[in-house]
Design goal:
By secondary structure, this protein is α/β, with parallel strands linked by helices. It has helices spanning about 25, 60-75, 85-95, 130-135, 140-145, 150-160, 165-170, 170-180, 185-190, 215, 235-240, 240-260; strands spanning about 1-5, 10-15, 35-40, 80-85, 100-105, 125-130, 150, 200-205, 225-230. Helix 2 crosses helix 3.
Length: about 270
Amino acid sequence: MISKDTGTGTPIIFIHGFGVNSLILQSLEETIDFSGWRRIYIDLPWTRQGLDLSVKSSNEILHTVEQEVLDYLDQEPFALVGNSFGAMIARSMAHRQRGRVLGLATLAGVFEPQAQRRTVPQKSVVFEDAEFISALGEHKGEFTDISVIQDKPNYQRFLEYVIPGLLEADAGIMEQISAQYAVTPVPEEVASEPFGAPALHLFGRQDHIVGYRDGLTWLDHYSQGTYLVLDMAGHNLHLEQPHLVKAVFEDWLLRMKLENPTAKNFSQ
């Protein structure tokens, strides 16, 4: 499942969303300064690099990813980043391994697994380059179905970081996992105390896939958490607002360093 390991320093584990691959999070490398951080990307079971026909549920993914990460890093502490579906995995891992986890970040994270129970805004487009969109052929539908900023730069990022994962996703495995989609138990519900490590939860105000209100339910649980709802941002908020995401993401990295000044890898 570990598909890419790059950089040196303290490890950050990146866990992507449903139906895509780790490229969608590797896009963060374009703008964010990861100096002193080792980036380890997970590819989940429906992807070409993470393909695993035996996985039947999200809980199985959680346990498989967790064990692989623990074996891979031995006793080394690490941070976690989860996007969309990957946020369910990352949140559970962060609570289960809170003695080793330096921090948690989620981007457009799934906090309510049942789609019909989510509080989401109506689908909308906040900017459209009508001439550009009308001329599109390939992958126009995929792009316009999810993107709230519909112009050439966002389309190019979508082609580079989203489409490859969509094309390689194994529909059979995804169907199996969809039948047991929720990660149980909900980590915040069963936790005996708030999550005290630096946290960052980013949401898109126009995200009609998972919304933002369900995630705000747990604002008080993350006692060192930054919560931010980005305007002009949908489910792919880090592609649509890369510079805003850069600012708050680098703040999260700094907060982890300040919280753990003696961690040996932070000096690298």
